[in-house]
């Protein structure tokens, strides 16, 4: 496969071989599907194919030495604040368990267990559901060798026959779910599928004839006009429905970069939200470096909230990350008077990255859902922006 003109880091021969392998696998899939596949299928294989998809390959993905950094990788403040909310929820519920989806390096789990070990928290079990075999192994090594209360952590293979009394947490998981890409036409829309031209992957339009697809509803609702391109994530709804089935009583806290529907499908955002990360270089071409780069799409928080409500979950709150963290006790973390000047500087840098609007503070949002709960969570008491979701009845 030929590489684009722009300046990307050089590939070593292991990376080159890995990319060739994933490229061949995708090309075979496309050829056996009469020459094109939906982008969601391409994204799913490029990210999640067993053994060789981006999340399953052995390379380091998350953190300073990887491709991108998430909030728990910056330090322990994010984890401490999420732990405070877990503690509050588990006290309200008179005890219960945590289920973390997509635990990455295991950093968030370690930080939460550390914090909960210092307070009187009625935590029973910390479950992790991780789709990547490689990351699951890394989490197990990291958590078992470094964590307090590591014996409370169990990895689930799937959510079949599972039920939870407690809290589900997920940081940057919904943005990794496969999306379909579409372009609005004079009538209806076309899917932007993926085909092979020469040795490259290219976009190809497939006109969608039937009406009343979820994308038709989005076009009508947000008044999208001819030529507008964006994404749509059907698998987010499926995951939410599963979570609603397993959650008997408790909360869900989802943190992700995303927008309300009207911001997501804003007329000016007419080329969608796809973002790729390769060695800390962000760009928007998902059809290069298959298997070597992360591919993400922002999350339509309105769609997530409406599906949650339709799936028997209650909407508890929607807030930006900065307000969430401050309400959840971020500033209390600075009150430790024994900190050295260096430690205080490092904490204040971490706070800036987590909360400044130009960094993670505004584009990252937290959606809280509940099932059979009487109280809300204190992290949503100031700055709750549920109204901005502009929810419609089903
Ligand atoms: C962007 S990483 C975020 C990792 C971690 N939560 C963090 O904040 O550092 C996405 C994570 O979600 C996992 N993942 C993707 N799809 C998933 C799914 N359907 N269920 C559970 N985990 C999933 C990936 O393997 C990876 O661990």
Ligand species: S-adenosylmethionine
The SSE string, one letter per element, is: HHHEHEHEEEEEHEHEHEEEEHEHHE
Which residue ranges are poorly predicted, with pLDDT under 50 across at least 5 consecutive positions?
Answer: none
Rough outline:
globular
Structural class: alpha/beta
The helicity comes to: 25-40%
In total, how many beta strands?
15
What's the helix count? 11
Terminal CA distance: 46 Å
Q: Quaternary status of these chains? A: single chain
Radius of gyration (CA) equals 21 Å
- The mean pLDDT is 93
- DSSP strand (E) fraction? 15-25%
Largest sheet: 8 strands, mixed
Task: Set down the secondary structure blueprint.
Elements: H1 13-32, H2 39-48, H3 77-92, E1 96-101, H4 107-118, E2 123-129, H5 133-146, E3 153-156, E4 164-171, E5 180-184, E6 189-197, E7 200-208, H6 214-222, E8 229-232, H7 234-246, E9 247-259, H8 261-264, E10 275-278, E11 281-283, E12 294-296, E13 299-300, H9 301-310, E14 314-320, H10 321-327, H11 341-355, E15 364-371
Parallel strand pairs: 1-2, 1-4, 2-3, 4-9, 9-13
Antiparallel strand pairs: 5-6, 5-8, 6-7, 9-15, 10-11, 10-12, 14-15
S-adenosylmethionine binds at residues 55, 62, 70, 72-73, 101-104, 108, 129-132, 135, 171-173, 176, 239.
